[in-house]
Specification:
mainly alpha, about 0% strand, 4 helices
């Protein structure tokens, strides 16, 4: 903790005019830096990246749901046509899940390749606290 004896604080808690001016200067400087950071953070590139990430997320969700629905639909239709009970429904739902996971992996590889060409990095090279063995908290 800082030693209070080296500050020129008056008994009422007031600060000297020089300290007040220094405080206002530092506050103004911080405001300027914050404005610059906000302008950098909301640029077109970040908005485009955010939209692209949302697109990938929706694509992955759609791939999984569509594969399961199509697999289930084919299984249901074949079960009704062949009068085989729920056997083909279960088989084709499992096949739909496998197809959905395969599509997610393909989308991830496409996303990783695109990320690498834009940044020169690989998604697997990104350092996270969990990968480094560090505690994130």
């Amino acid at each position: 903790m800082a030693d209070q004896s080296d500050r020129s604080v008056k008994p009422g808690g007031d600060i000297s005019p020089e300290e007040r001016a220094e405080f206002k200067r530092r506050l103004s400087e911080l405001d300027d830096r914050l404005d610059e950071a906000q302008e950098r953070g909301t640029g077109v590139k970040n908005e485009a990246g955010r939209g692209k990430a949302m697109g990938y997320g929706l694509r992955i969700a759609t791939d999984i749901i569509a594969a399961v629905v199509v697999g289930g639909g084919i299984g249901w239709f074949l079960d009704r046509w062949l009068d085989s009970g729920p056997l083909l429904l279960m088989v084709f739902i499992v096949l739909g899940i496998v197809a959905g996971i395969r599509n997610v992996i393909r989308t991830y590889r496409l996303m990783a390749a695109e990320f690498g060409t834009n940044t020169g990095m690989d998604l697997d090279d990104i350092s996270t606290p969990e990968r480094n063995g560090d505690d994130p908290n």
